[in-house]
Amino acid sequence: MPKKGANISLSSYDDIFSTQESRQETGEHVVMLPLDKIHPFKNHPFRIVDDEEMQKTAESIREYGVLVPAIVRPLENDEYEMISGHRRRYASMLAGKETMPIIIRDMDDDTATIFMVDSNLQREHILPSERAKAYQMKVEAIKHQGQKRAVETTSRQVVGKLEAAALIGDEIGQSGRQVQRFMRLNNLIPEILDMVDEKKIAFNPAVELSYLKPEEQREFLEAMDYAQTTPSVSQAQRIKKLSQQGQSSLEAMCEVMDEVKKPPDDRLVIKSDVLRKYFPKSYTPQQMEAVIMKLLEQWLKKRTREPER
């Protein structure tokens, strides 16, 4: 148990208790394994970032140890592959630890992939590229599981790409279509995918750009640099159409990207955060609009009276 006064969240206790219950049901037990015997999951799609949150995790582990055991599966020669716990392992290394508590669990490749993806999708902050790669890995694992069952049972249990995406969507509260749209990002060249992660290119235009050939995507980067602007959904769709019609060229992309973007219907849009500083926090958008309209009417009356003076 953690020391008295430790700042531990309720979710941490939930993890501890659920892990204990799972071990009791399966007969598994916790062992201390050397960190250098534990290897990252192959093609692990989630980045380990040495940020402020990681430093806090390392400090907590330095003082209290790892509260929730990681999950690994055995390899050869007393080596192990991490399934769940990559961040805890890295934080343990930062904290100067040589071992960490581990649960060893035998899993085949597909089961391990699905478990790894599911355990990481619970994180609060996930980059679009991470989500795209994770969805792709889980879809392939689900499809492969379906194929194996079909061979073993000689019955129709094959799961296609669309079905697998729908299954994932049901689990996370999204449509299968949205899962597929995220997976489209895997077709982007690294330079554009990085810009999506950095929010320099929005998600919806990025999905449209994913239909371009790699060489066309590189030309698009030149066109974007030429125009010094990022694409709207409409621009990305038009560039995609050029590609599908075999009319894509750097010159054509530059022409599309060089167009001046106008607000819909030439309307003036003022963001609420710009106006908020002039109103009490309790004011609703409707109250703010009423005050603004009243002040504009007073201003208009004043203007109409001024020439008469």
Please characterize this protein's 3D structure:
This protein has 309 residues and is α/β, with parallel strands linked by helices. The chain is built from 14 helices and five strands. 56% of the residues lie in helices and 7% in strands. A five-stranded mixed beta sheet has the order 1-5-3-4-2. A hairpin with a 5-residue loop joins strand 3 (70-74) and strand 4 (80-84). Helix 2 packs across helix 3 (86-94). The model is unreliable at 1-25 and 150-158 (pLDDT under 50).
Brief summary:
By secondary structure, this protein is of the alpha/beta class. The protein has helices at residues 10-26, 52-64, 86-94, 109-120, 128-153, 161-172, 176-184, 190-197, 203-209, 214-227, 233-244, 250-257, 272-275, 285-305, and strands spanning 30-34, 38-39, 70-74, 80-84, 99-104. The longest helix has 26 residues, at 128-153.
Q: Sheet with the most strands?
A: 5 strands, mixed
Distance from N terminus to C terminus (CA atoms, Å) equals 82 Å
Question: Structural class of the secondary structure composition?
Answer: alpha/beta
Principal-axes geometry comes out as extended
- Poorly predicted spans: 1-25, 150-158
Estimate the helix proportion, in percent.
55-70%
Number of helices: 14
Radius of gyration over C-alpha positions, nearest whole angstrom: 27 Å
List the quaternary state of the chains.
single chain
Order of helices and strands: HEEHEEHEHHHHHHHHHHH
Arithmetic mean of pLDDT:
83
Strand order of the largest sheet: 1-5-3-4-2
- The number of distinct β-strands equals 5
Beta percentage is: 5-15%
